[in-house]
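Why run this: before we spend reagent on co-expression, it is cheaper to look at a predicted model of the complex and decide which construct boundaries make sense. The entries below are exactly what would go into the expression plan.
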Amino acid sequence: MDLVAGVIANGVLMGAVYALIAFGLTIIFGVMRVVNFAHGEMVVIGMYAGYFLWAAFDTHPLAAVLPAAALLFLIGYLLQFHLVQHFLARPAHVQFILFIALALVITGAHLVAFGPNPRGIFSLASFEVYRIGGLRLDAVRSQAAAAALLIVALLWAFLRASRLGRAIRAAADNRTGAAVVGIRIRHVYAVTAGIGMACAGAAGALVAPLFDTHPFLAPEFTLIAFITVILGGIGSLPGALLGGLLIGVAEAAAALVLSPSMKSVLSYGLLILVMLARPQGIIGSPEGQR
Amino acid sequence: MSAPVLEVERLVAGYGGAVAVDGASLSVGAGELLAVIGANGAGKTTLIRAIAGMVRPMSGRIRHRGEDITGWTSDRVCERGIAQVAEGRQVFPSLSVLENLRTGALLRRSRAREAANLERVMALFPRLAERRAQAAGTLSGGEQQMLAIARCLMAEPELILFDEPSLGLAPAMVEMVFGVVRRLHAEGMAMILVEQNVRDSLEICDRAIVLEGGAVVAEGSGAELLASDRVRAAYLGL
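The model came back. Tokens follow.
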């Protein structure tokens, strides 16, 4: 029983990080209506940032989160402002090609710069465990989950309460209306892309101590982010949170009940079920997917 | 004499290759209400959008208080105090009424006085105060028009561009819109009013222009145009 509880708990922890990744994907889609097919690559950039900060300064895994997020924010802002902006009015398949190209370029750059070999963070912290009753929780994972949830909560508050957050939500809701009230749409879009990719980067830094970093991890993260977002409801931020937790638990449960190599079976099964019963996602509204 | 609030000189604007506004000129003085009338496709909305910075003019000049603002983006135009009540109202449907109003105060020119302005527009439109927590998309057409006007006032504009504010509204709401325009006029607000409701807008305006094929074909006081045979035949069906 403790084993099951522990597996589920660790699944929830991983799910919190998935939620952060999906949050980034869904905010970019919700506001600009573009799909970031290079999202997993952004996660890997964050992982490398985490790895190299640890390798150079032996920092605590959490210390890499802010620098990784800042780096990806900058990348996201510049990408949107100077590149993606020009593709917003183009057909979806043209945008698709742009982002796939971006993904290939990033993976290629990783290969050239860092090589194909996995790089792992070895720290004593990774042996630490929190005991809560009979439950044993991996310390690094718990901290990553707590940080991920904190970031999601802060972003949520930012979108609700700040002036820029209000401008982002207004621009997402009605682009013409945003121009009418004088919102600087190009800047607001760039900030949104920056935030979305910073979520991926922060998540990358958080999982760097958990998985060995290598360039080809990216498609897996992209895929997980997609399942998560579709499960929760496209463009819905609470949906991303719920979807992340569900996928995390489903993976953990499948690894326990079936076998670790089959860990994705349940999440895909869940995806198919939701697509059949509620195509707009668990929380999503029908107009979320245009 | 000081420069007019807005001067438009031989403006040419359109979409793609198509010219919708073809050499129109106009000016709006302080506190003046200028009505723009014309048939569908005469270029009224494009004229408004070009002034508001949402369509880039192909040629011509737009000056605000003597300063050239031709080709400025909408955020800079708004920041100068030229606000728009756009065609189709353009509220934010999933944001609450209150949040919609607050988007009107994102500009640097008025953000410091957001609370006072909120109080003012809520007093002007008690209906909005009642529904402040409701999503704007659930409001009636007339209420959305109130919201669009109130949101525009949150920016403390000195010139308001009204584009078809009474379009598609019930008669009582049309009256409400004209009542608000009249009241703003009495308070000294400079306005451009584009309306298909020709008689009402000619009755309340100081001056009016008639647009045909994107150019100004007649100009005069509201009373003069109401008396002109051409306007009576083409726009009033008399």
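The interface with chain A takes residues 52, 54, 73-75, 77-79, 83-84, 86, 88, 90-95, 99, 102-104, 106-107, 111, 151-152, 155 of chain B (CB under 8 Å). The CA atoms of residues 13 and 19 of chain B lie 6 Å apart. Bring this page to Monday's planning discussion.
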